Amino acid sequence: MVRPPTARSAVPGVGRLGLLEPSAADSLRELAWDNVDSVPLLWALSRSPDADLALQTLIRLREQLGNDWAAVDYELRRDTALRGRLFALIGSSSAFADHLVADPAAWQLLKRPKLPAREELLADLLAAVKADPETGPHAGPMLFRAQVAGPEAIALLRKRYRDQLMLLAAIDLAATVENEPVLPYQKVGQHLTDLADAALTAALSVAVARVCPDREVPVRLAVIAMGKCGARELNYVSDVDVIFVAEPADTTATRLAAEMMSVGSAAFFEIDAALRPEGKAGALVRTLDSHLVYYKRWARTWEFQALLKMRPATGDLELGGDYRDALMPMVWAASERPDFVADVQAMRRRVEDLVPADLRERELKLGHGSLRDVEFAVQLLQLVHGKADDSLHVQGTVEALGALADGGYVGRDDAANLTASYEFLRLLEHRLQLQKLKRTHTLPAPDDEEGMRWLARAAHMRPDGRQDAVGVLTSEIKRNAVRVRRLHAKLFYRPLLESVARIDADNLRLSPAAAVRQLAALGYVAPENALGHLKALTKEVGRKGRIQALLLPTLLEWLGETPNPDAGLLAYRRVSEGLDNEIWFLRELRDEGAIAQRLMIVLGSSAYLPDLLINAPETIRMYADGPDGPLLLATQPSDVARGILSGAGRYDDPKRAVMTARSLRRHELARVASADVLGMLDVPQVCEALSSVWIATLEAALQAVIRASEAELGRPAPADFAVIGMGRLGGMELGYGSDADVLFVCDPRPGEDETVAVKWAIGVAEQVQRLLGAPSTDPPLQVDAGLRPEGRNGALVRTLAAYAAYYEQWAQPWEVQALLRAHQVAGDRKLGIRFLRTVDPIRYPEGGMSADGVREIRRIKARVDSERLPRGANPATHTKLGRGGLADIEWTVQLLQLLHAHEVPELHNTSTLKSLDAIERAELIDAEDAALLRDAWLTATKARNALVLVRGKPADQLPGPGTLLSAIARVAGWPTDDGSEFLDHYMRVTRRAKTVVERIFGGE
């Protein structure tokens, strides 16, 4: 600490004293502090967090004290402790500056050499309202009756409370100015809690006098402190959470509790009873038995977590002790509840969501790397291991961290570092609250230089030779936030790794049973299996083993936040073992945080992707961020299609060509599915990419087969050959579980025999189907030609002329409808376009489809609805054939096309969404109806794709409430973990769409 100049030194300039106000020199002269005898005062003033505020407050005090100012001046010159307390206080808190000016004589309180004891605080506040101990059958050490209970009691109590708070703040802040001892954070919290207990007792004494003025108190009333007050780690400005227990819980008890809250909230701080059973909707006061019934039958996990910090604070302490003794066994058994993991994770996410995104880096309490991160982690570990270890039955966060370290549940170094960061963040929180005595947890904005300068000085930050005080503070804030986030993961997972691999001595002693408990509490359904995976992952010696040990704590934390951490951990083990010889894999995970986090989200969310990633590992590199965003989005489907055709074109052997096309398709599926799971692609983008890669693979296989055939024949093929996409392939709307519906068409070349040409074409089509449909670990490539004329009984391939003759003479309404999705996708482009022109008059009939045709379409749809829905399927949640599902929307759009495409050229479109847009623009239906149909189609497609991504196989039926539905909801982009909410939304959207379908398609 810089020593002040001696009395013989020159008087420092105003600027050197940190005084920026133009009137500062005049103010010093007014105080007679502009001489060399005042140099120690001036240097102390310069160390105040806000020297200008301190100087202005001294001027105001001098004006209020008049002739009594001389005594203050004298004491300040001789008593360095008083000087440090006063200058630090009035330079840190405008609220306490105003308090002193309003009652100038209160400066003498700052001369006290030490903080008053708990008993002194209680006596001081009770004396303000002349409270005496209550007599009668319910008398106790914390039950008093105030003699002063009128409106004046509030002002008297507020003044005494504020005086005691001021003394604590002055002693707490003094080290910023003089060489006073720094008050430990825990001592500050404990003293604030003692003061709060005294305040609650004084408020209850006034309530007793008001509710029972002429009689003894007829009830037993216990006040249970919760939250920070219960844990004895209270802030300067904080709500005090309480729960009331009474015997009996009658109107008198309720009036006592309500009156106490009213008095306390007006005089001291907000008293909040919202943590009681049923929250604000529940009874304010309950008996002990009523509390027990509620917690046994109805309480949620978060309520038991809140009870960790309960403590009888005032009132009937014996009844409060009975309450604690009865409920604590339930608290320590909470981790065995079936919904424990889901509840804890959901609560944590809800808390994080309360903070606006733009404030998360400035929020000390709820942001990233914040106080809540520490408190949440510590409480969770207490709940997990507390039933088996009584040493964890402590309430304060710092005490709990120490107990966890002593028990071997966390590393000692980790506990010490986390404690240091927690105390630093609490120090900043206290300083911010002292400034205006307002409840706040938000750091000044980065561009608020004055605010940051004040906070740096108030928090004892000093220049370090490289940075000024603000720079030091900013660095410390970032360092501690990063440390909290890093240790948050290590706190849970490093001991788990220590239990299966001797990573470090560090005094960790987590037993196998404790490791299983901890994994179960972190969301692992089969914790024994998870331990086996951890053992396998860390068994390698050397560099790889060390990197895995370094990575796993953070990877496991990210996995724990996914829908299926068990499957995710197994998948990670499989990927790691599959890439054992790839030296880049672990290095990328270590050096690129985005890759590691995204990989864990994908593996813990999707059964569709692990095999793809094992066989297409380069996709994992694309999880990184590039200069223009995620690399997963840097590839265009058209580029992939060209790559597939180019790669397959290098081989004459159709099998090798198709293997190459499959390999490139595998990479593209992994890319698209990964981006989809990570929420980077919308539904149309997914459908387009999946359709594009399917078409490219089909084209590559067709070209390879034709090349091989021509080589075998020794001449050009006898016919042109084209593949017409139908259904969702023709509409470029494929999903992950979709087959490729196609028609094969050929046209004999001049001079070729038609029979020979058709036979050749059938051979080509069969070989393409066989090559693409060959067994593989990749998602299947089924080419389905079942929509051809006469169905599966008809010829696999027909000539263009044969198609034209059939459709002109025999086409059924359903076949005409199917042709609406016909689109040239592979083979000879000119032949494909000729086919489309041939069928245009069929699918877009002049004058629209006949009334008989419309009736037939409606009849077929009714038959599909009644016969094709699988047995036992729920029609409300079947994404394809259910009410308001994909079939309903698509048949409605296609019926409108059949009726109006001849007069609206824009309806000559195979895409459902684009056709719906055209229908809306042509005003064939209301915009509101179009929006409902569009929303339902997108919702059903997204849900259907999510089903495949989560389950790893094609499916159309959404499951009922449960973990599987919640996983599907997460992958489908639902903003919460509540799968039931997602299901309700799905059914609401499709139900509204079904109303439109019945009105339009049904002709109502």
TrEMBL record:
GO terms for molecular function: [glutamate-ammonia-ligase] adenylyltransferase activity; [glutamine synthetase]-adenylyl-L-tyrosine phosphorylase activity; ATP binding; magnesium ion binding. Residues 1-496 are annotated as: Adenylyl removase. Its cofactor is Mg(2+). Pfam families: GlnD_UR_UTase (PF08335), GlnE (PF03710). One of its GO terms (biological process) is regulation of glutamine family amino acid metabolic process. It catalyses: [glutamine synthetase]-O(4)-(5'-adenylyl)-L-tyrosine + phosphate = [glutamine synthetase]-L-tyrosine + ADP; [glutamine synthetase]-L-tyrosine + ATP = [glutamine synthetase]-O(4)-(5'-adenylyl)-L-tyrosine + diphosphate. Residues 85-319, 597-837 form the Glutamate-ammonia ligase adenylyltransferase repeated domain. Residues 504-1004 are annotated as: Adenylyl transferase. SUPFAM superfamilies: Nucleotidyltransferase, Nucleotidyltransferase substrate binding subunit/domain. Keywords: ATP-binding, Magnesium, Multifunctional enzyme, Nucleotide-binding, Nucleotidyltransferase, Transferase. It is an enzyme of class 2 (transferase). It comes from the Bacteria. Involved in the regulation of glutamine synthetase GlnA, a key enzyme in the process to assimilate ammonia. When cellular nitrogen levels are high, the C-terminal adenylyl transferase (AT) inactivates GlnA by covalent transfer of an adenylyl group from ATP to specific tyrosine residue of GlnA, thus reducing its activity. Conversely, when nitrogen levels are low, the N-terminal adenylyl removase (AR) activates GlnA by removing the adenylyl group by phosphorolysis, increasing its activity. Belongs to the GlnE family. PANTHER family: BIFUNCTIONAL GLUTAMINE SYNTHETASE ADENYLYLTRANSFERASE_ADENYLYL-REMOVING ENZYME, GLUTAMINE SYNTHETASE ADENYLYLTRANSFERASE. This is Bifunctional glutamine synthetase adenylyltransferase/adenylyl-removing enzyme. It comes from Nocardia yunnanensis.
